[in-house]
Amino acid sequence: MRVMFVSINQLKSYRPVLPIGMITVATQVRAAGHEVHCVDLMFEEEEEQVIRHETAKFKPDVVGISIRNVDSLNLLEPAIYTPLAREVADCARSVQPKVKIILGGPGFTTVPEELMDFIGADYGLVGFAEETLPALLRAITDDADPDGVPGIVFYDGKRYYKKPPTFSLDYHQVLAPDRALYDRRYFEYVFETHDDVTRVPATVQTKKGCVLECVFCSNFLIDGTGVSMRDPASVADEVERIAIDGMDRFEIVDGVFNLPLHNALRILREFERRRLRMRWSCMINPGAVNRELVDLMAKTGCHEVELGTDSCNNRVLGILKKNFRKRQVYEVHRMFRDAGIRTMHCLFIGSPSDDRESVMETFDVMNELVSPDVVDSHVYWTFGLRICRGTELFNIAVREELIRGDECFLVPKYYVSPQVMADDDLLEEIRQRVLCNKNWYLWWGLSSISLRERLKMAVQENLAIERLVMQHMRDRRQSLVTLSRSS
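The structure corresponding to this sequence follows.
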């Protein structure tokens, strides 16, 4: 079969991110004997024209749309990205009417039925598609019933049929992503960081899954509750190939690199044994850091880590089910600082049980660790937490009557602690403290508008987005009813 993959991610707010998931799956599909073509919309401004052109040229039997993110995950900057997926499907069908549309990716996995309905796709795959997409393509080729494919989603005429994914993956059978399938413009793109001008790094994934149970995290929907780990030698082999290809840096894109800790240490020991030295970065959990980890990271070229700090108040950290407390935030920050590794702390404002005391405690700790005169550390604040159906945060929000629970989650819903949301003085103090520290970021427009005013505007923007989405879904359902009656 001829399979055209399309990545709809266009987010460049920090820097473009290589679509490693799509390219990994495309590599497996090609190895299964299919002809593949990858289209990346990251750098395109005329998306409709590009899709029409590529569809007419390649003439795909199947178009697989990779949905990395459904929305911005940011209450202060509301946006949804899935209308572009719908546009891709419509454009492909206008050129190739019989083409099958398949949806996948981490974003799709969080709201599969809503996206199937919104886009009008033929099939969707939740979970790991490295093995399940080739299986689905075999079923389509043989005109067989696909209902046995793990993770399959499709409309059976009455409802959405959904088979649970297995979340099992034999990494020994999975080929590394073929870098030749990436859009070459990623490797020509130059962007500016806090104090450096650099290029998009190569991406490396060492595992799927996580051992934590954070109340807000949807990772269990995307990767399951277990952990599938690659062999350290395989990871090191991939890094060596990246160096041979001329790349000078890479990013480990695991949700958290250092969990389980023993796996991260095995990989780094293999890097050290081979004397691999290349600039790299990753995301780190503060609750699983020791001296050996930091030393090996520094020796092998790690130059920056993103810390999932979330809060510096022990009560809030406990409710979020984090595996660390405030003391470890201090310790871990100083270990990385002393090793010469830059840090970025990522924190929430408005977590469950957050109040003036806990928010100010978190701000005080960050001001101590990342003061305005620090040059090698930054803080990224997020106001509110994106609610995902199936998480404990969802249950908390329903109990607190912040949501009903039956909403369409294609348009984001956010949790903000009522104690924080109702405190105008606290909101203004948050705004002033962020503005006083050049190393902190919450929202780019804070200097010209109050946080309360921005929140009111953001809520209205989100409601406007929801009205448009729901109207489209009503129109589509009506057209399906009309078509059914006419046939």
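Residues 453-487 form one domain.
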